Each structure stands twice: as C-alpha cells, then as structure tokens.
Amino acid sequence: MIQMFDKFNSEDRGQVGIGTLIVFIAMVLVAAIAAGVLVNTAGFLQATAEDAGQESVNKVTNRVEVLNTHGTVGGENDIDNITMTVRLAAGSSSVDMNETSIKYLSDTQVQTLTNSSKSLTYANKTNFNLSKVTDDDGSFGVLNSMNDRYEVRINTSDIENPSGDLTGGLSTGEKVTLEITSRTGGTTQVMLTMPQQLAGKTQGEPVEL
User: Sorted alphabetically, which PANTHER family does this protein's record hold (predicted)?
Assistant: First the structure.
C-alpha cells in the first residue's frame, strides 16, 4: 500500500491546479477587457450614426419655402431685381437668414450671395437684402415661426454686370437658378424664366416671375 501511494506526487498535482487557475483568471480578464472594448465601440458607433442621421434630417428639413417671386423692370426692358417672399418649410426648425447663402446661376454668371441686411439697406453683386413682412417675436433675420415672412431681394443688374457698365439685368426669356442653402445644409432650389414680353412696361414696375 505504501508503494502504491508513492506513485502519486501531491506537490506536482497542486502545481498543475494553480497553473490552470492562473490561465482561467487570465482568460476571464481578457474576455472582460474585450467586452469593454466592444461596448465602447458600439456606443461610439451608435452616437456617430445618430449624429449622421440628425445631420441628414437637418439637410432635408431645415430650409425655407419660396411663396412667390416677382421682378422689377429696368430701363432697358430687362429685369433689374428679383424679390422672393420666403417662410419656413413645413417641419423645419428655425433658419437664420444671416447664415444662409444663395447661389445665383444664369447663362453668364455664377455668384454666391450672403445677407447684407445688418450693414446695407440694398442688394449688390455679392449680397442679397432682407426685409420684414411679418415677424411674430421681433427676431428679425431668423425665421422661427410658420407665421414669419421675409422678402429676399437680389440685384440682377449688379450681378449680370460686375464691371458696372449698366447694360441691364436679365433679358426677356433668360433663365436663372437660385439655390438657397441654410447653415445646416438644407437647400431650396428656385428656377425662374424672365417674361417673354416686357415691352411697354415702365421702369420700376413689378412683374410676376
């Protein structure tokens, strides 16, 4: 019996058990660290997806709606100015017209316009001008209510003649595209064709576009 027990080394068996335990604990720690990394990564990806989704929504919803447009007849049977009445588009949050740009594209000119209302009372070749029609809370420049209405005025004569030779604005039949883009990227596109008949119109007379 004594010889039989000698075949088992209790010290060796204890060492093997401790080694297995150490390996097991190490595996648990690695798994915990990996799980933490996965949770953090999932949280980061979720936040990024939410930001991207909100940005996409803003580009679609945060924009203006053009209610009507008219032009002003110049001295050479052309359109010297374009005026648009704008409001918030349905579902849009507030739009700051001071941070809104208008891209003007005609057959001969491409120009990006910004708001000059704070410093100028008129539009020129690089600025549009804003005037109030209705404003519920006196926050002029910011469309934050569906009842707010502003007029946006664009000086086509200055844009079409950057050299200042006063040869006129947009002639009959000419087309112009206006892209109104808010700070968040929401864009409204307006395509206008000048009236075919301007003869007989007096200078300064408004005509529907």
Answer: FLAGELLIN B1
Report the distance separating Cα 104 and Cα 180, nearest Å.
Answer: 9
Residues 93 and 23 placed together within one structural domain of the fold: no
Task: Report if residue 137 sits inside a domain.
Answer: yes
Q: Which two tokens stand for residue 138?
A: 């006196």
Contact in structure between 61 and 92 (CB atoms under 8 Å):
yes
> Mean per-residue pLDDT for 105-119?
91
Tell me what pLDDT residue 10 has. 52
Amino acid at 126: T
Mapping DSSP to helix (H, G, I), strand (E, B) and coil, where does residue 170 land? strand
Q: How many whole angstroms separate alpha carbon 25 and alpha carbon 151?
A: 72
Residues 87 and 181 in one domain: yes
- The CA distance from 197 to 77, in Å, is 9
Examine the domain organization and report whether 101 and 45 are in the same domain.
no
Answer yes or no: is pLDDT of 109 > 70: yes
**How confident is the model at residue 13, as a pLDDT?**
52
Task: Give the integer Cα–Cα distance in Å for 200 and 85.
Answer: 26
